Amino acid sequence: MEVSFRGKHALVTGAGKGIGRDLVLALAHGGAKVTAVTRTQADLNSLVQECPSITPVCVDLADWGATEAALKDIGPIDLLVNNAACAKLQPFLEVTQDQFEQSFSVNVKAVLQVSQLWQSTLLKIVARGMKARGSGGSIVNVSSQASQCALRDHAVYCATKGAVDMLTKVMALELGPHQIRVNAVNPTVVLTQMGRLGWSDPEKVKTMTSRIPLGRFAGQPLQHLQAVFLSFISSGSQPYLYKHIVQNCCEFGLCSWFIIGCFTVF
C-alpha cells in the first residue's frame, strides 16, 4: 500500500523491533517526519543507520518521569502509534507483583501517558496539541487478539490488551469531537522476536494454528502495516469508521489475518 504522509509528524513507540520498526521505516518512506521511541539504544542506532531522517528517543516507557522528560520537547504530533509492549508469560497462580506492574506500566499506562505528552514547558498532551492547532490527528493503539480470547499463561498480557481496547474506546469518545481519531489494531500472533518467545513450543503452536483458517501465524510484521495505515487514512475518504471493519474470525475468536477495532465514535 503506497501512502503519502508528507508534512506529517509521526511518533511511534516500541520502534526498535518488530511491528514498530517496520512501521517507522514505512512512515519515513511515505514522507513523514518520524520520532522513534524505544528503550534500547542499540536498536535506535541501527534504525538511524538504516534511515538517517528518523529522530531517535531512548527511554523506558515504564518510567513516567523519564518519559515526560524525554518527550516533552518533541513538537506537534499528527500521527501517534502506541506500539510498545512487553509479554511476561506465566501461569495465573505464578504471576508476581513485579510482573503485573511492569506489564501494565508498559502496555497500558504508557499508552495513556504518551497519548497525553506534547511540547510544553510543563506538560501538555498530544491530544491537547492537536486540539489547539485545530488540525485534528490520529492515534492508533496496537492491541492484540489476546484482548478478545483467553490464552493459557497470558493472564496479565490478556488483561493489559483488554484494558487497551477499552481505553481506546474512551479516548475515541472524548477526543472525537476535536477531530482526533483514536483506533486500535488487534493483530493475531506475529512472529517478531517477542512473538517467537511466546510461541516457540511446536505443540503450543499446533493447538493455536489448528484454529486459524490459513493454518499459520503472521510471519512478517510488515503484513500488519496495512491495518495501521487504514486507520490513518480514515480522516479523508472514510471519516466514519466503526468497530470491526476487518474481522476474519473463526472459532475461539482467533484470526487468520487481523482485526481492526476502529472505535471512533461520531
TrEMBL record:
InterPro entries: L-xylulose/Carbonyl_redctase (IPR051737), NAD(P)-bd_dom_sf (IPR036291), Sc_DH/Rdtase_CS (IPR020904), SDR_fam (IPR002347). Pfam families: adh_short. Keywords: NADP, Oxidoreductase. Transmembrane segments: none annotated. One of its GO terms (molecular function) is carbonyl reductase (NADPH) activity. GO terms for biological process: glucose metabolic process; xylulose metabolic process. Homotetramer. Belongs to the short-chain dehydrogenases/reductases (SDR) family. This is L-xylulose reductase isoform X3. It comes from Austrofundulus limnaeus.
